[in-house]
Amino acid sequence: YKDYIQQGILHFEYSFNAVYYLLSIANVGPEYFNITISTLFIIFSITMIVKCVERPYRTIGLVFFLFFSITLDFIFNAYRQGLAFLFVALSLHYYSVNRKRMSLLMFIIGLGFHWSSIVVAIAIFLCRFISIRLAMRLNIAIIFLTLVAALVPLKIIPLISKILFIGSFGSPY
Fold it and tell me: Any idea what DSSP says for residue 30?
């Protein structure tokens, strides 16, 4: 953020770039960036919980969500992925209640925070064409390959890296 304020260079996806731009317009200094972005994350988390969790369970859902170890990492380290997750969760909620346009909008915003949001869209698209049995087999295969990759280098990371670099329109992030 400090580099953006000084040089005006943006390297992230469009939604996060918009956050940088809006924070700079609001004259948020680099020393307040972490506090501001964490506060925005908490506000968006509350919005997501209010939209996605039924009334008697909202408080427990919010407490669990905000103090879950992965969420804490989202709040303090992985801002882009955390914000993308919130918008993808809202996208899934709107998709489940048959509000397709709102779902698409939330997904596009989520994708603008982090490219990994596309995984959710692929999963939703695939679930229309594959059976539960095949989905279970694919999950088991992915878990197995993950375990194998943890023990033996499969050397597929360079290939995936090239594909992701092409898909991210040349952004180093």
Answer: G
DSSP 72-115: HHHHHT-HHHHHHHHHHHHHHHHHHTT-HHHHHHHHHHHHHH-G
Q: Say how far apart CA 140 and CA 85 lie, in whole Å.
A: 24
Amino acid at 133: R
The region, left, alpha or beta by phi > 0 then psi within -120 to 50, assigned to residue 98 is left
Rounded to whole angstroms, the Cα distance separating 102 from 96 reads 11
- Please, are residues 119 and 85 in contact by the beta-carbon 8 Å criterion? no
77, 82, 76, 102: which is closest to 91 by C-alpha? 102
Residues in the chain: 173
Q: Per-residue confidence of the chain (173 residues) as pLDDT tens digits?
A: 777 777 777 777 788 888 888 888 898 888 888 888 888 888 888 888 888 888 888 888 888 877 777 676 666 567 788 888 888 888 888 888 999 999 999 999 988 888 878 887 777 777 778 888 888 898 899 889 888 878 887 777 777 777 777 766 656 55
Residue indicated by tokens 């993308």 = 84
Q: Measured between alpha carbons, how far is 93 from 78 in angstroms, rounded to an integer?
A: 23
